[in-house]
Amino acid sequence: MTHTRSRLDRGRNALGPALELVHTGRAPTRAVLTTELGVTRATAGAVATELATLGLITVDPRPGTATGSQGRPSHRLAVAEDGPVALAAQVHTDGYRAALVGLGGRIVATAPACEAVDPDPAQVLGEVVAAGAGLLRETGRRCIGAGLAVPSAVAEPEGTALNPLHLPWPAGAPVREIFNRCLTEAGVPVEGHCGNDVNLSALAEHRHGAGQGAAHLLCVATGHRGVGGALVLDGRLHTGSSGLALEVGHLTVDPQGRPCHCGSRGCLDVETDPLALLEAAGRRPGPEGSLLDQAGALIGAEYPTDDAVRDATRQLIDRLGLGLAGLVNILNPDRIVLGGLHRALLLADAPRLRAVVAERSLWGRGGSVAILPCTLDHGSLVGAAELAWQPVLDDPLALAVTAG
């Protein structure tokens, strides 16, 4: 009896780690799950069966061997395609979007994007939550939680947006409180979480994208306006003592540069964002599409042929390289991923960017740091969902309790 109970306890303790392994794609088979958990085959089988009973994963009943592999065939594991979802929302300077995101970072459904942001946070969050609630009704999916990505540092534990510099919102808006109130009013009785958009994009890239396997992942990205950064250490976001770490947008890369919203000059935030690219290339922002889309399209279409665009792109690459080199000196990451316009800069001339980072970092060791483009199309939305999924990853059995 004692032996049976101890095996059961070990299995229950392994449920969360096992779900995270399947969620991040690191355990595609039961054999891999057994090895990663360090348990017996019987315990791994029981864990997989329990997660399948909860409706979170599927276990292929027929053992199979991957092409070219050796050893005994093993049951394949996958996230349940018809399983529960998280409601994810993102607000940025050019609008907002709602989506439903399942395990594995899969976007199940999205609502049409809105291209305007009201000065009242309650109005915006009410609208985006209503759009998400509509998706839940249409799909009939069970919602386990909700996550919100905003272009601002989010103070913890209050959940306030301290500096939404590029939104017409008041500083210190209690976005988590408003988000949860809107969820209740929309008839979505789940807990709402919120975080900085680049932080959440970094978390998503680490679990499902270009950052998988990195021990110290640095993410630097432009939003539709401005620049943000994030650090993932051993699979967890480094947010500092109160959620405000990695405000990399306010590193100075040109002391004589543009005035910044923070009161300084020449910050990464205003020297390497979409508006900076358009201005440096002598282009006026157009009425169609976001600044981010316009700047990315300009590089993609005219970098090879237009001297002004090429010079502007190289100018931004050099300034981004200076900023990244400073971060490499301080943080010593083993991988850097770049998103938004920075992804387009990297794809336009990766050797130039890597050379600047190597030249300006200590001992030239920055040249050995992998610099990769983000791979997720909607990283902040997926990352917002990760906030909602985390309590389930920590304790999958809580789903059975809430279902009851």
From TrEMBL:
It comes from the Bacteria. InterPro entries: ATPase_NBD, ROK, WH-like_DNA-bd_sf. Belongs to the ROK (NagC/XylR) family. It comes from Streptomyces sodiiphilus. Pfam families: ROK. SUPFAM superfamilies: Actin-like ATPase domain. This is ROK family protein.
